Amino acid sequence: MTVVIVGNCKINVHTSVLRKSCSDLFQVFTRRGGEDNDASSVLIQIGDKEVVKAYIHWLYSGKIPRPHEPVDKLFVFFAYAYVFGDEIGDPKFKNAVIETMAVYARDNCKFNARGAIEVICGGTQESSLAW
Predict the structure, then answer these.
(1) Which residues contact 91 (CB under 8 A, 6 or more apart)?
(2) Which strands make up the sheet holding 9-13, listed edge to edge?
(3) In this structure, what CATH number is given to the domain that contains residue 62?
(4) What pLDDT, in 10s, does the model give residues 83-115?
(5) Structural domain count of the chain
């Protein structure tokens, strides 16, 4: 078991689940060893705790959780999730976030995407595919 620490929040995650991540950060961490029954921790100094929780949920389930927020705020949350995926180097997570956003965009054709676009453009490199 690994404890992922984000700010003052501690999230228990099976080490084997972290190994499923395509993230450069988690790949380096899990290569150092450690099994599910070993106690270890990793400190994440990027991202919001709710976004990191969403990432871990996705690692377990393959689905991006959808917070109960108005659509405009939901897209901002997804944008922060995309930026987190970019920062940790996990292209599969970024793709899952974009696919989730596309489903919501299709089902909610009236929403303001400006906040989400600002988050993505402000949080990713210009070389990012999101640009």
Answers:
(1) 22, 85
(2) 9-13, 2-6, 40-44
(3) 3.30.710.10
(4) 999 988 899 999 999 999 888 888 776 767 777
(5) 1
Its pTM stands at 0.81
42 beta partners? 4
Strands 40-44 and 2-6: parallel
> Are 4 and 42 contacting, i.e. CB atoms less than 8 angstroms apart?
yes
Residue 131 lies in a domain: no
C-alpha to C-alpha distance for 93 and 84, rounded to whole angstroms: 9
Q: Which domain holds residue 20?
A: 2-123
Q: Residue 11: which H helix or E strand, with range?
A: strand 9-13
- Domain membership flag for residue 130: no
